[in-house]
Design brief:
The complex is a heterotrimer of chains A (118), B (991) and C (417).
Chain A lengths: L2 E4 L4 E4 L4 E5 L13 H8 L8 E7 L7 E7 L5 E6 L10 H5 L10 H7 L2
Antiparallel strand pairs in A: 1-2, 3-4, 4-5, 5-6
Chain B lengths: L22 E6 L2 E6 L4 H7 L6 E2 L6 E2 L12 E5 L5 E6 L10 E3 L14 H4 L19 H13 L15 E12 L3 H12 L4 E4 L16 E2 L2 E2 H13 L4 E4 L2 E7 L3 E7 L14 E13 L3 E3 L12 E3 H9 L8 E6 L3 H11 L3 E7 L6 H9 L4 E3 L1 E7 L6 E6 L6 E4 L2 E5 L2 E3 L2 H5 L3 E5 L4 E6 L4 E3 L9 H12 L7 E2 L24 E3 L4 E2 H9 L5 H8 L12 H12 L3 H4 L11 E2 H5 L16 H6 L3 E5 L2 E6 L7 H14 L2 E4 L4 E6 L3 H8 L11 E8 L5 E11 L2 E6 L4 H15 L6 E4 L4 E7 L3 H5 L3 E2 L13 E6 L2 E7 L7 E7 L3 H15 L2 E2 L2 H10 L40 H4 L4 E8 L11 E2 L13 E9 L4 E9 L8 E5 L4 E7 L14
Parallel strand pairs in B: 1-7, 8-9, 8-15, 9-12, 15-28, 17-24, 18-19, 18-24, 19-20, 35-46
Antiparallel strand pairs in B: 1-2, 3-4, 5-6, 5-7, 10-11, 10-29, 13-14, 14-15, 16-25, 21-22, 22-23, 26-27, 30-31, 33-34, 35-41, 36-39, 36-40, 37-38, 38-39, 41-45, 42-43, 43-44, 44-45, 47-50, 47-52, 48-49, 49-50, 51-52
Chain C lengths: L5 H8 L21 E4 L3 H14 L4 E4 L15 E2 L6 H21 L10 E5 L2 H17 L4 E3 L1 H7 L15 E5 L3 E2 L2 H14 L3 E3 L4 E6 L5 E6 L2 E4 L2 E4 L5 H7 L7 E10 L9 E4 L4 E5 L5 E7 L11 H14 L7 E12 L6 E4 L5 E5 L9 H14 L13 H4 L5 H5 L4
Parallel strand pairs in C: 1-2, 1-12, 2-8, 4-14, 12-19
Antiparallel strand pairs in C: 3-7, 4-6, 5-6, 9-10, 10-11, 13-16, 13-17, 14-15, 15-16, 18-19
Helix pairs in contact in C: 2-6, 2-9, 3-9
Classes of the chains: A alpha+beta (118), B alpha+beta (991), C alpha/beta (417).
Family (chain B): Belongs to the GcvT family.
Protein name (chain B): Sarcosine oxidase subunit alpha
InterPro entries (chain B): 2Fe-2S-bd_N, BFD-like_2Fe2S-bd_dom_sf, FAD/NAD-bd_sf, FAD/NAD-binding_dom, GcvT/YgfZ/DmdA, GcvT/YgfZ_C, GcvT_C, GCVT_N
Chain lengths: 118, 991, 417
């Protein structure tokens, strides 16, 4: 069960209090009625589904009720940052470094290999 | 043998830590034995010389007790407290004996000594690993009918319980600074160190007492005390500290994300008469800031021919039975080892008066100190030798010893054999935390390497063998400054993984790697020969490591044998994943309180009790209990619903509509917000009026519906479907917070704030009139779709003039606490006038008579407003609303979409089945072309015939057409109609 | 290929099983192939087998990052059924079920397809309406699926609790008798053996790191950890990682990858005769031939490639299992694990051409891909061989998200796969 930092409550709380809200920073087109079928598909269906660093929305549904954004590694499930909904995408310094741990002499179970292969 | 004072012929006087006077009687396969309190079932049976306790999974080989701990693969027994409290597959080495417990062996018939299944052992040449993939294929049907049932009966171990479990289980959430798994020397020292810093500490150990390896290792001295005694003192000190929680008989079974751990505490399984209030087990869900893993190491067996006979045991287990339980495993014991630890077991046994037939050491260079001690004790040591076979049907009787590389085998008579191939660090929790291992080539073991969570491994599980180093590591891990001095008698060397000489080449030899699943060295070699080159393939093909001990003993051996055949270094062959739970966990403990009513709390309306008193039958709608119908004496559901339907239309009815979702939408931009969230236009709605609204998602499909009342310029009372309220609010919040944050709007769920009493029917006004204060509810002053705040029986209320029946109707909203009183008053008056109470079934029929849809029944997430005949509710003027673009997609505007229409059966007495499919040509062959399906179908007492709704391809263009509903036995002809079956002019609603 | 039979076993038993061949070979990759399939799960290996058997294409490499059958093929709860609602779904799942019925004989490998019945429990009026919609659609389409009363359901599964006092009482059930289970590993191994025998190269421990495209955007081959391997046709069947592989060709797909957990109990003597699913309380359960109760749990709510999941998912599933089968409260969980499922917005799979010439995709099977293995593989082979979908899989195309012609089994039925 994840432990999630709500940037509004400024508390670490259990995942049970939160609801995942999909990929972050996908703005609803202002001229939505006028966009093409392809643009609508892109907006509504297509997702990055990143393996590694992802930006996603959460809602502290059983807490303050606010939506916020998070940067999380989908391989380790570690949160790198959570931030308020009105902030732009936050660059995560040295994320790549942090995610690329030394591999030599490490014996992996299959699932770890699976997790690292990217 | 079994007099009450007989505590076993193999008890050693002066040995062990139990009190001789405290006995307990138990039965094993019907025979009564006496044990000492503190015995495990294993030690109690061994005390009486009972080694044969079970049969293996596949070959039904006789099996004894291999270990003294949770890694036990063989001694799995059926333990009963009473007929309902029966537990299969209990490890004899873990279960404590108590007075009166009944124990039985498993997987044998007719008896443990004479088991028909053992025939499999003779056929074993045919039953090589994976044989079942190669046969049982002919004839085609025979697998499921003949072979599989036979295999299923032969497989499995214990019998599942037959009765509902009368025990209860508990759950506790906890947080701590440090959780320490394992209370051996390393764990206790860490705890003392951490506790000294003031940190909150949870220290956990699976055994009844702390001490870990000190249970068997009687030669360690700590702070000048015998190690085991020091451990008990340390535990007492820790228990006295307010910041420490010490949990024994508790297993850390899983290490999950973000410092979350699952623990299970066995509270009563060791008690003869547990208090009724005690839970049997308690689940602990702990969020730890830091975790210290001090889980030690597990001794491995030697892999050689017939290494599975009863009487053959791990050396440390023999030592544990002797030093802790005071039980010798035999009178004349052989030793086969590749590690010094077995020597210490031999020394302890010898000193206790047990004869040691010989120590057979397959190394040429055992530790000098143990060698010297063996000589001093007069024990025969054969270095560079191997045990290549054993004999004895139900108990080991001899071992065959050969010089390595030599030919002359000799048989040595024994009545028990102890063995050690060295120690495997218990890295299970570390691996579950997703840490990465490295292979320690020198000692042939995997050790923790890269940590991904805030944890640290100390002691045996970290490969720290030297006890002084171990204590230092533990103190550092705890972060405190304390001093502990510890010393061992001997330093250990040695260890091997894989098949020993005695495993033989690929012949008929059975050298067991995994005892429970009967996986032998040759099975692993066969798997490799057949192309299984990944350790995961080998595991799955042979089932090595997949038994209930999850490979605690077998994984390393299996890996080494595979690596040898593949001629690859061990790290390249890989390691199978360590999965939770560390040891099996009772479902009941994981369920804890979530059963019955607490499994999923039922939501009940304020009037629920009154409805129950009035005789309501209830139905589940989402997690609500709703009144379904109100049968009178002698009425079945059909009769009750017919009466309710008639009465509502003739006189009136009272209905509990409280479950409808309610959301208060407030703020200067409230109308603009609703304009964006619903397909309808809201800015044109005047305060004091209400309107039916449809909500679509961006994809254009109907998401929810409901009546929305405008109470003031800036205040709307929104209703949603019963099941939809939470997701609609979430959906609204999502848009409000993230897409339209500039709008000044506040959303509040008010579903449970209002009790809603619907009063419908020609006499509805007459019924509620006397209760309404401060509002003229005449037709002129308060026409259909009006809403107002007023007072009902002196209670502040919101009154809606609305109808889901097509009759004159009102919905009285009063604060939930007043609901029952208002309901009582209204119902009393309604009853006097001749009205009835009605439930959801009647509501469904009445709304269907009028052509009103139910979202979720007549729509299914693929239906657009136009499909449902509701295009009038989609604003053509708005430039934006959620769904505006989705609705224009090619497939949503094509011809021939399924549209909601009415159906009338040609035979008016036939009621269609909801879910029935509709075709144009009933005589076409299968697969038939289906035009759609029946979404709602009822007997309409008011129409005197059956009525139905259906989603039909191109339905609105088919008015008057005859279609067919082919049922299993018959085909029903239907005519396509519009949706309104009753009062087509719609005059009644304005009455 | 040496035929497996009881006689072959008898012969080998006499000589310590020394004579068995490798079930599949592990060749070094050639510089190019006619077809490359990314992902050696059941779907990918099966597609290679059917390409060789039915379309005469044998110069194929199946490239696998880990070990064959190690993804969702080897991690699922092995449920097989075809009683879906929409014609597009019925087409492919029934095609699959028919292939299951003869798969052991076709592959000469006992995949232990066991038609012991799949029962779905109905708990309320909504379930009943939905199940009857399925049953009627299935019947008119020629697929078996029947309604049982609670008493009939209990007769079929004696350990079921049908008490009216239950929190979610059972008001009936839908039963597909031809539904059941199969041995998951054997499916991967059987296809691997049969494909390898027909000349297909199975290249394990080889990770695809890129998809190389030519001047017109067409595929030319794959970059791998063992170097570049050329091919004019590439089929991606990499469940759990479809987004990652498709991204290499610049194709975005409407998928979410979510952890899905499952667990087994300690082995028990036979107690549970079929597969039971309940969507309302979120549980599904069967008993393996080894005697373990095999229980499928839910997916975690967030995207993840971690193959782990929260304990709360497991406990919630067991809550439901113990409500339906109170006698199981004393049974013990022996092992839990996770896989990564690709989930589409309409919970139906995607199989079809892509905007990239020569690139074909088979993904999005969500939590239900195992049952589709033979059918999906068979139709994927057709797609790759002919360059256009078989009529039974035509509706599963990627374009449906643009047109809105979704196959929304989840919305229509609220039934888990």
């Amino acid at each position: 069960m994840l432990l999630i930092h709500c940037p509004y409550c400024e508390e670490d709380r259990s995942e049970l209090e939160f609801r995942w809200g999909g990929e972050a920073h996908i703005a609803r087109p202002e001229n939505i009625a006028a966009i093409s079928d392809e643009e609508f598909t892109e907006f509504f269906f297509l997702r990055n589904n990143e393996k590694g660093l992802t930006y996603e929305r959460w809602r502290h549904i059983h807490g303050c009720g606010r939506f916020f954004n998070a940067a999380r590694d989908t391989v380790s499930d570690k949160f790198l940052l959570t931030y308020k909904a009105d902030l732009p995408k936050q660059p995560i310094a040295a994320v790549e470094e942090a995610l690329a741990a030394a591999q030599d002499k490490v014996v992996e179970t299959w699932e770890q290999t699976e997790g690292d292969a990217r | 043998m079994s007099s009450s004072s007989n505590i076993g012929a193999f008890r050693i006087k002066g040995a062990g830590r139990h009190t001789p006077a405290r006995t307990a009687r138990f039965t094993f396969d019907g025979k009564t034995y006496t044990a000492l309190e503190g015995d495990t079932v294993a030690s109690a049976l061994l005390a009486h010389g009972v080694h044969l306790v079970g049969r293996s999974f596949k070959y039904h080989r006789p099996r004894g007790i291999l270990s003294a701990g949770p890694e036990e693969p063989n001694a799995l027994l059926d333990v009963s407290w009473d007929s309902a409290r029966r537990q299969p597959n209990v490890r004899a080495t873990v279960q404590e004996v108590f007075d009166g417990v009944k124990i039985a062996s498993q997987n044998r018939w007719p008896s443990l000594k004479h088991d028909i299944g053992a025939f499999n052992d003779m056929l074993s040449p045919f039953f090589a690993a994976g044989f079942y993939y190669k046969t049982f294929m002919w004839p085609k049907e025979a697998w499921a009918k003949i072979y599989e049932p036979f295999i299923r009966r032969a497989a499995g171990l214990g019998e599942a319980p037959k009765e509902e479990d009368p025990d209860h289980y508990a759950n506790r959430f906890a947080h701590c600074d440090v959780l320490i798994a394992g209370a051996g020397v390393a764990g206790l020292t860490t705890a003392l160190s951490a506790a000294a810093t003031g940190a909150t500490v949870i220290l956990v150990d699976e055994q009844p007492e702390v001490g870990g390896a000190l249970h068997h290792d009687a030669a360690t001295t700590i702070d000048g005390q015998n190690g085991y005694d020091w451990a008990q003192d340390a535990a007492a000190r820790l228990k006295a500290m307010p910041n420490v929680t010490l949990l024994t008989r508790t297993t850390v079974f899983g290490y999950y994300n973000h410092g979350f751990l699952g623990l299970v505490e066995r509270v009563t399984d060791h008690l003869a008469r547990p208090g009724r209030n005690l839970p049997r087990e308690r689940l602990w869900q702990v969020r730890a800031k830091r975790v210290v893993i001090a889980t030690g190491a597990i001794e491995r067996h030697m892999v050689f021919s017939n290494n599975d006979r009863p009487g053959i045991m791990l050396a440390s287990a023999a030592r544990s039975f002797l030093n802790h339980h005071g039980v010798a495993l035999g009178r004349n014991v052989g030793v086969y080892t590749a590690h010094d630890s077995a020597y210490e077991a031999a020394f302890d046994l010898k000193r206790a008066g047990v004869s040691i037939a010989a120590i057979v050491d397959n190394r040429t260079d055992p530790g000098e100190a143990v060698l010297a001690e063996a000589r001093a004790l007069g024990i025969d040591v054969l270095t560079g030798h191997s045990v290549t076979d054993t004999s004895g049907r139900l108990r080991v009787a001899s071992m065959t010893v050969v010089r390595n590389g030599g030919a002359n085998a000799r048989k040595i008579k024994i009545d028990a054999l102890i063995m050690s191939a060295g120690w495997t660090p218990s890295v299970h929790l570390f691996s579950q935390s997703r840490g990465k291992l490295r292979f320690d080539e020198a000692n042939q073991r995997f050790l923790p390497h890269i940590y991904t969570q805030n944890c640290v491994s100390v002691g045996g599980c970290n490969g720290t063998d030297d006890i002084a180093d171990l204590v230092g590591e533990a103190i550092a891990a705890g972060g405190g400054s304390i001093a502990v001095t510890a010393e061992n008698r001997f330093e250990w060397t040695g260890g091997m993984i894989g098949a020993a000489e005695g495993a033989g080449p690929d012949t008929a030899v059975k050298a067991f790697v995994d005892f429970q699943h009967d996986v032998t060295a040759k099975d692993i070699r066969l798997a490799v020969r057949e192309g299984m080159h990944s350790i995961e393939h080998i595991k799955r093909f042979t089932t090595n490591g997949m038994a209930s001990d999850q490979g605690k003993l077998s994984n390393m051996h299996g890996l080494a044998i595979a690596a040898e055949v593949l001629d690859r270094p061990i790290p390249q062959v890989g390691l199978t994943t360590f999965r939770a739970p560390y040891t099996p966990v009772t479902y009941g403990a994981l369920v804890a309180h979530s059963r019955g009513e607490l499994f999923d709390p039922a939501r009940k309306t304020p009037m629920h009790a009154l409805e129950a008193q009035a005789g309501a039958e209830f139905e589940d709608v989402g997690n609500w209990k709703r009144a379904w119908y109100f049968p009178r004496r002698g009425e079945d559901m059909h009769a009750a619903v017919n009466r309710e339907c008639r009465t509502v239309r003739d006189v009136g009815g009272v209905f509990d509509a409280s479950t409808l979702g309610k959301i208060e939408v407030v703020g200067p931009d409230a109308a603009q917000f609703l304009n964006l969230l619903y397909t309808n236009a809201w800015d044109t709605l005047k305060p004091g009026k209400s309107r039916y609204g449809i909500m679509t998602r961006e994809d254009g499909f109907i998401y929810d519906d409901g009546v929305v009342g405008r109470l003031a310029e800036d205040r709307f009372h929104v209703t949603t479907t019963t099941g939809g309220a939470p997701r609609v609010l979430h959906h609204m919040e999502d848009y409000l917070q993230t897409e339209f944050p500039h709008l000044k709007v506040w959303l509040t769920s008010t579903t449970e704030q209002w009790a809603v009493i619907a009063v419908q029917g020609p006499k509805a006004r007459e019924i509620i009139q006397p209760f309404v204060e401060g509002l003229d509810i005449s037709n002129e002053a308060f026409p259909h779709m009006s809403v107002a705040e007023c007072s009902v029986m002196g209670v502040p209320a919101r009154l809606f003039r609305m109808s889901f029946t097509g009759e004159l109707g009102f919905e009285v909203n009063v604060p939930a606490d007043y609901g029952p009183d208002v309901w009582k008053a209204i119902w009393e008056r309604a009853q006097g006038i001749g009205a009835c109470l009605y439930g959801t079934e009647t509501m469904h029929v009445l709304r269907a008579e009028k052509g009103y849809i139910i979202v979720g029944q007549d729509t299914d997430g693929t239906v657009t407003p136009d499909d449902a005949g509701l295009s009038w509710a989609v604003s053509k003027k708005k430039t934006d609303f959620v769904g505006i673009r989705g609705l224009k997609r090619p497939d949503l505007v094509r011809d021939g979409r399924k549209q909601l229409v009415g159906l009338m059966t040609r035979d008016p007495t036939l009621v269609l089945e909801e879910g029935a499919q509709i075709v144009a040509d009933p005589n076409q062959p299968k697969p038939m072309t289906m035009l759609g399906h029946v979404t709602s179908a009822y007997w309409s007492e008011n129409c005197g015939r059956s009525i139905a709704f259906a989603l039909v391809a191109g339905g609105r263009a088919r008015m008057g057409e005859t279609l067919y509903v082919p049922m299993k036995e018959t085909t029903i002809a239907v005519e396509v109609t519009d949706l309104v079956f009753f009062d087509k002019e719609g005059g009644r609603i304005h009455g | 290929m040496r035929k497996y039979s009881v006689f072959a076993i008898a012969r080998e038993a006499m000589r310590a099983h020394k004579g068995w061949e490798q079930q599949w070979t592990s060749p070094e990759p050639r510089s190019s192939y006619d077809v490359i399939i990314v992902g050696a799960g059941g779907h990918g290996l099966g597609a290679a087998y059917y390409l060789a058997k039915e379309h005469g294409i044998t110069n194929i490499a199946v490239i696998e990052k880990g070990w064959l059958g190690g993804g969702n093929t080897g991690r699922n709860t092995t449920i097989i059924r075809s009683n879906y609602l929409y014609e597009e779904s019925m087409d492919i799942y029934e095609h699959s079920l028919k292939l299951w019925e003869g798969l052991s004989q076709d592959l000469n490998y006992n995949v232990m397809y066991s038609p012991r019945g799949v029962m779905m429990l109905s708990h309320n009026t909504h379930d009943m309406q939905s199940f009857k919609r399925h049953i009627n659609a299935n019947r008119l389409y020629g697929i078996d699926n029947e309604w049982l009363t609670p008493e009939q359901a209990k007769a079929f599964v004696p350990v079921l609790d049908i008490a009216k006092t239950a929190r979610y009482p059972i008001n009936g059930a839908a039963l597909q008798r031809r539904g059941g289970t199969a041995r998951h590993d054997a499916v991967a191994w059987g296809y691997a053996r049969a494909a390898s025998d027909r000349g297909v190269h199975i290249i394990q421990n080889c990770e695809v790191t890129g998809i190389r495209r030519g001047p017109n955007g067409e595929v030319q081959g794959v970059e791998t950890s063992k170097g570049f391997i050329g091919a004019k046709k590439i089929g991606v069947s990499a469940a759990g990682h479809s987004s990652v592989v498709m991204e290499m060709a610049g194709v975005r797909v409407p998928l979410h990858s979510n952890p899905l957990q499952a667990l087994v109990s300690e082995p028990l003597k036979p107690i549970f005769p079929c597969v039971v699913m309940s969507n309302t309380v979120h549980a599904y359960i069967s008993q393996s031939d080894k005697g373990e109760l095999v229980i499928g749990a839910g997916t975690d709510q967030y995207n993840s490639y971690s193959q782990t999941g929260g304990l709360q998912i497991i406990t919630h599933t067991l809550d439901a299992i113990c409500e339906l089968f109170p006698i199981f409260r004393r049974v013990k969980m022996m092992r839990q694990w996770g896989g990564i499922t690709d989930n589409t917005p309409d919970r139906s799979p995607i199989q079809g051409v892509t905007p990239v010439p020569g690139l074909f995709v088979n993904c999005g099977w969500g939590t239900g891909g195992f049952k589709a293995t033979p059918g999906s593989a068979n139709l994927f082979a057709h797609l790759i061989a002919k360059g256009e979908p078989h009529k039974l899989a035509a509706g599963l195309n990627l374009d449906r998200f643009r047109t809105g012609r979704l196959i929304d089994e989840a919305a229509a039925a609220a039934v888990a796969h």
